[in-house]
Amino acid sequence: MEQQFAGSSEPGQNQDLKLAQDPLVQRMFHQTQELVASCTRFLPSDVELQTSRINQQSILINAHYRLTPKVQTKHITGHFSPTEQDQQHAAPEKAAASELPSLLQGASQAAQDILNKPQARYTAVNGNTSLVRGTRFWSLGTCDNCNGNRTIRCIHCDGGTTACSSCHGSAEESCPQCFGACTISCMQCGGLGTITSTEQVSVTHTVYIDGQSHNEYRTEYHNVQRQCPSCSFGRTDCPTCNRHGRVQCRTCHGARRLECQFCNGKGAHACPRCDGSGQYGILAAGNIAVECHSNAELPPDADPLMPLIQQIHPLEMLPQTLDKQALQELKGSSQGSCFQLHARFTGQLEIIRIGIRCAEQDFSLSAFGKQIEWVEQDNLVERLLTGDLTLLEKALLDVDRDTFFKPNRLPVQQALRNALQASLHEQLALDGAGNNSGNQIVSSEFAQRIHARSQTAVHWLAKANARVLWPWLVGAAVVLEAAAAIMGGMAATWLVCFLLVSSGLLIYRFQTLRIFKSTYPSTEAAKKSWSLLWQQKKLLGPICFLVAPAVVLAIAATIWLPAHINPEQAIQTTTKSSGNGITQSVQAWQQGEVIKARALAKDFAQRGDSSVFGFYAWLIAADVGVQAGDAVVNDPDAAQTWIDRAFEVNKNDLWAKTAQATLLLEGREVPRDISKGTELLESAAEGGLVPAMYMAGQYALKGKHVSQSNIIQARKWFERAAAQHDSDSLYALGNLDWYGLGISRPNHKKALQEWKESAALGNKEAEKTVKAGRPIKS
């Protein structure tokens, strides 16, 4: 049966208008309007309903029901509470089986009554349908597991207790402190058996000045090892077990047994079979199981859209979507102990077709069912979006006619703005064919076409904006960098270059985003488009095009400046800022040429190279590289002068800190301040200065000018300096390892290896020690 509507003025127009107002037609038309409004730039009012037609497609449903009688049983305990309908019987299963014939007869009649009801569906009788209910028969007897006692003996314990798992019934366990050894390591000496004390001694120190020598007396602190008074060879009695090796069990507290965790100390637990009731039995009842099988058929004159509908819903699933089903035929027959019913239903499926007009184009749409499931949309959205996409492609073809530095951005921007007014077009422009919601409405090829054209337009707008800004940035670069080169030199030129590049990029990003925001419907979409171009590296070309003039001009100024700057000023600038003095001086000192290093440092310092002030002060304070005729020999005042000059330039000069620490720790011409001197020395060592690390280790190891020796601290500094290939630190570290200072036991093999590494770096003492195979006492 078909119903039609056409927008004409012929007789019968009232009946056609009534069809156009059908709820299904109106619902489908409203969904079409919503689709157009949500995916395109057109409004719901732009969509007009032209024609409509509803076809009631008949579907034949064949249903087969099989009723099978069964006896269902269930185990029960003494906690079972029977109802008034339940009956006690000695043989519940036999009693329930005797009721099955009458139950089957009643179930078959109940099933026929249900299917014969008006508006009944073929699924009214199924496996979950309860047609009849039989009497429940039950029987209870004494539980054979517990013999009616309700409890059974616990198999995990003996009368509610078990032997302690820690002491196994002995009431004692191994001492947790000495682990049965009866003695522990001495806490006072750390298990070494000896303690180290510091003694003050006065030693003679020979000083050479201009080939003459004289003796000075200095105070030193020596380490003396004595036997520990609190232990015997590093071991002392265990205070926990008093040399017994065993203590009272901490689990059972000497009781030898523990309460059983399974029965809570009762020795028995409820019988699991009867659930602690002492009775066990069976409950039986008759039941009718229902099995339903169905299939669907189409009449020979089925609607042409049915093959497409079956691709959405298989024919076997369509009957479940039909609201109206009518029973045509019902037959029943007995087969052995079962009963079978054969029913034939007829259902009606609504197929709706409408014709609409939008943007001067006609479309034919079709759907089915009360829920309006679409079958054909006639490429509605794709055809509506094609017009805007065609205008955008035409605008992109015309951009080649513009001048390079004055591109006409308005046509491309306007065409892209019109296209992006459609929300679907905006999604596809940003996400491409990967957007699943868009691919359900338009084809993947069309989605990729929208994405490609939109990205091309956005990229062109970004390049056009760079071409517009380029002349302004070039003019600013020429004026500002030329002025900086003439007035401020090379450093000022590169600073201006950096500021021009940074400001140019910020202005370019701001202007481009402003264009995108005026094109895209939302600010978030504009920012996402910018991010997408950045991720695809499409902005590298415009950015390089913008910053290239400023960089090229700065390079040109760098090449031009040395040829036109005052030679004396260039020499002075190079000497003061290049840092060549400290590099050459330290390099000579590291190669063992201490006299040359001191001469270089003195020369560069007197010429005003601030980088060498601290190093030269340290050479003076430490009497390094002294040669005959040197006017500054062991002169604390001269050292302090260069230290002060170094700190004026750089308060964190590591060499100056080391020189100042040397004067303070030695007390030469300045009051001795061990605390401040040690702090300065460790600060320089923490800064990575190798000589400071070695000196900090020596002061800590020998106890020179400090209150007590600290072997661990000395090892730390020696190890850090040795990691930077310092030969003196490697030699000192080898001595510590040989005697086992700061470690658990002596390590002669490691000590020899460290001496060999020190000798390879040129340490003469290490070479002698390697030949002797042990430390040489001097």
TrEMBL record:
Membrane-spanning intervals of the chain: 492-510, 539-561
Superkingdom of origin: Bacteria
Keyword terms of this UniProt record: Membrane, Transmembrane, Transmembrane helix
Coiled coil region boundaries: none
Renumbered residue ranges of the record's region Disordered: 81-101
Cited InterPro entries: ISR_Activator (IPR052748), Sel1-like (IPR006597), TPR-like_helical_dom_sf (IPR011990)
Pfam families per UniProt: Sel1
Transmembrane helix found in the keyword field: yes
Annotated PANTHER family: DAP3-BINDING CELL DEATH ENHANCER 1 (PTHR45011:SF1)
Protein's name in the database: Sel1 repeat-containing protein
